[in-house]
Please model this.
Amino acid sequence: MSERTRFGRFGGQYVPETLMAALDELQTAWLELREDNGFLDELRARQATFIGRPTPLYHAERLTEHFGGATIHFKREDLCHTGAHKLNNALGQAVLARRMGKKRIIAETGAGQHGVATATVCARFGLPCTVYMGAEDMRRQEVNVRRMRMLGAEVRPVSSGTATLKDATSEAIRDWVTNVRDTHYIIGSVVGPAPYPEMVRELQRVIGDEARHQYLASENTLPDTVVACVGGGSNSIGMFAGFVDDPSVELVGVEAGGLGVETGQHAAATVGGQAGVLHGSFSYILQDQFGQVLPTHSIAAGLDYPGVGPEHAMLAELGRASYVAVNDDEAVAAFKLCTRLEGIMPALETSHAIHHVGELAREMGPGARILLCFSGRGDKDMHTIESVSPTDMPVIGGPQ
Ligand SMILES: Cc1ncc(COP(=O)(O)O)c(C=O)c1O
Model:
């Protein structure tokens, strides 16, 4: 196995023999295209007119004031078309798949944001699209299921296991093994066998590159700390990519602590997992003493995955990035706080990172600077928020 497929001791290609030819074909096409000016020009043009890039850098003044500490900025990936960073990757892979002559697209989705992003690019390019989604996630993220169907995608429910992202990913891999000749699998995060983790990072690094440039232009300096939520790890690695070579910038990934890491009901693979193989890659995963993958829990469907991308495992082991876990109830409180103080409703995934940004801001104090990757918008989570804490928020300006 070549060095290119690894991040330190992590990564690799742990897949059935039938997929090796497809991975080689993808690797070759990707390595060629990433140097191809025609491909890069097409991607840049579509990022500008279809996604709406560059997304703004936003000074969260009222949250900064509320925490009374470090200055907080958001990189606004919620303003991407379809409402999250996921479209950066789906668009890039769809352009690649077209150039490879693939006729059909499949994807897995958790929160539905990656499924919607994939269904969107497939509608745009006229490609048939099948999205695998856990039955539990279809219930939690029902609006996104309707969006995918409206866009013309077939959504296939997956009822095995915990009926969440891991199970959907396993089904998508099964489909790919069967239909590998004409089908491209658009993986939604920096997980899976090589070249996916590197390719998805490169398609998401636009977040970090833009953010670094914008931050320097508006603040004349770099942030002290960059924070992002971590499911599989794509918004965070895209953001980190812009700053990983700046030793003064601390990188922090926020995982889903669920009901508390100590309860075992969580999805914090870096904080609470061990090295193992999942979905074709060697990384940190949640597993029992026999190597069986453990069921996970998070209120945020997009974080509810028992593994993390291999590059995160490497960054954690090197100590270049640190990882923390934030619980469901803390994320719900942060969702409400941000919505009311900034008029921006964050995705529940993002809300995990917002809670940690609050803690850090207090700790670091005035004069310090924090940059958050605001990975997506929270409209999709209205149902979930209302079901865990029905209208307990006072009307602004009304009786308190
Ligand atoms: C808004 C949002 N943020 C974060 C994530 C987590 O994924 P990743 O860690 O790949 O960015 C998801 C996944 O669905 C998401 O929808």
In short: Residues 14-48+86-195 form a domain with the Rossmann fold fold (CATH 3.40.50.1100). The pocket of pyridoxal-5'-phosphate is lined by residues 84, 110-111, 113-114, 189, 229-236, 302-303, 347, 349-350, 375-376 (CB under 6 Å). The two ends are 63 Å apart (CA to CA).
